[in-house]
């Protein structure tokens, strides 16, 4: 079995992995980027709409264009690629370095030794099975991402008329894409009282095409035996579908856009502790996990709303790897927690006396709110939040002098105009 030695092994060649590889390679660290697909770019390769790259490349790009530029940057920095390879195991060696086993049709089994691991494996979609919707198992049921790949990369229409379950960004974008392809979109049905996707996607993908959005509704049955024939939907009352107000929508296709699950199976097998609020790893302000030498960033850490943010976070995380491999200890770290109206905070630990960028996911819709941090019950930092939506990630940089290290920092999001 062939054994190869690298300073850094990056798992995943999407936006996060490519940005991280460019950073570590530029720093003089031998870097291997591993991905099961035959081309780098990840999910970007099937996102043919524009809107990417305004922050990272100062230009509006399609997904494949963004992927090509990010891959070129990593290659020109000196990163090596192992494409069409699946990483089947990750273990810690006795000396604290790591061993990966890769499988591929071209090369068989490869053994990789690396001094650091960068997790950039992204997410997988939740499916109908996650929702337990009654009905048979007819043809015509897809996740939004699977339908996107079928349409954009394979050139095949998933059906003639569709209902989309969930208003996540992929589902919203697919509503527009289906209409462009001549497929009638009968409705988008969402459990929550507000859309799960970005406001701009609601406006550009639903409102511009007069596609109905049913908030606080649920699909209670998928109808059809061999092929989807329609769905039954009902409004929620006290959180439960009201069967007396049930109605039927005829369609031959159902797309699910009901959330993403970070791909952390390999990380868990290596002992990385996961955050139940995100499904991603718990990391400190260096983006290092609970296993020294394993770093994580991007959607595998927490789901982002823009790919540019994924690249920025991964690059920021990767800049900490050279110091770690040089033997620099990160120092004392203190817990950061999410308080009122926040689902999570990343990172999970901060370093006292160091400026830190925190990321949050709000749980409320609010105007003119406040985000604040407190240590031992005393507010040490606050920021005005004029517009808060659960679909949009919040980031906030807290100054070094405000992170004194005197205790855990707890963040709260407060509604209203007063502090």
Q: How many strands, what sense, and barrel or not for the largest sheet?
A: 7 strands, mixed
Helix content: 10-25%
Our Rg estimate from Cα atoms comes to 22 Å
Mean pLDDT: 94
Point out poorly predicted stretches: none
DSSP E strands, number: 26
- Percent of residues in beta strands? 35-45%
Rounded to the nearest angstrom, the distance between the terminal CA atoms is 63 Å
Total DSSP helices: 9
Task: Describe the structure in your own words.
This protein has helices spanning 15-26, 63-77, 128-131, 144-152, 169-180, 199-206, 265-269, 307-318, 321-325, and strands at 2-11, 31-35, 80-83, 86-92, 98-104, 108-119, 123-125, 141-143, 161-165, 184-190, 213-215, 217-223, 230-237, 240-241, 247-250, 253-256, 260-262, 294-296, 334-338, 342-346, 349-350, 356-362, 366-375, 378-388, 394-398, 409-414. It has 419 residues and is an alpha/beta fold. Helix 1 runs parallel beside helix 2. The strands form six sheets. Strands 1, 2, 3, 4, 5, 6 and 18 form a seven-stranded mixed beta sheet that branches. The chain is built from nine helices and 26 strands.
